[in-house]
Amino acid sequence: MLPYICLSWALLVLFTGSTVSEFVVKGEAGQDVTVPCHYHVRNKNAITSMCWGRDRCPNSKCSRPIIWTDGWRVTEQHSSRYQLKGDLQKGDVSLTIVNATEADSGIYCCRVELPGWFNDQLINHKVVINKARISTARPHTYTSEQTSAPGSTSESSSTVTRTWPPVSASEAPQTAPTPSSGPSDCLDVASNLQNTSVSLPSQQHPERGLYIGIGSCAALLLILVLALFLT
Fold first, then answer.
1. What is the mean pLDDT of the chain?
2. Domain 20-132 classified CATH 3.90.1150.30?
3. What does the pLDDT average to over 116-135?
4. Which residue in 225, 54, 197 sits closest to 126, CA to CA?
5. Low complexity composition bias: which ranges (predicted)?
């Protein structure tokens, strides 16, 4: 009876093995992702070896091992992207994946080798690396483009139009008193001459047309006065 009980216990321990814990770790591509793993260190004699593997923890060792440590230093390293940045002598054997990628997603096994049969500490981690977040904000680019036709200049030409005020009767040159019929006719003639000089194509020199009109008016007035005196 006793041998049967011992055999049953041995088979139960062999097939069940150590208790395995499972956790989920999420990260983002392009960043460092830390997969936690710790064990209790009572004294220096409790410092022990451990390994990380890319698969679930088997009955012994690590499947597809990526890094090993004897408890004091790293003894084997599959890639420089896998690092143990924690204090090994204090039981911090967390795995850091440098510049993680989506291909790093999967199951990772942390196996701490403790003394005795089936006493190893086993932790399975499911690592999920998501795509990097893309910012929707776009940088604003301000460009100023100025084009001009060949042979032209960038300065625009401006045309200045001057409007000369009409000359009133009070501003006209004073002459000797004449009968009532003469000055009104002269003023009409001067007004007509002024309007004609303004409408001429030679508007580039309006002062010259104005002087000609005033001179013509004065000449007509003089002729009228002489004619009146003669008659």
1. 74
2. no
3. 91
4. 54
5. 147-163
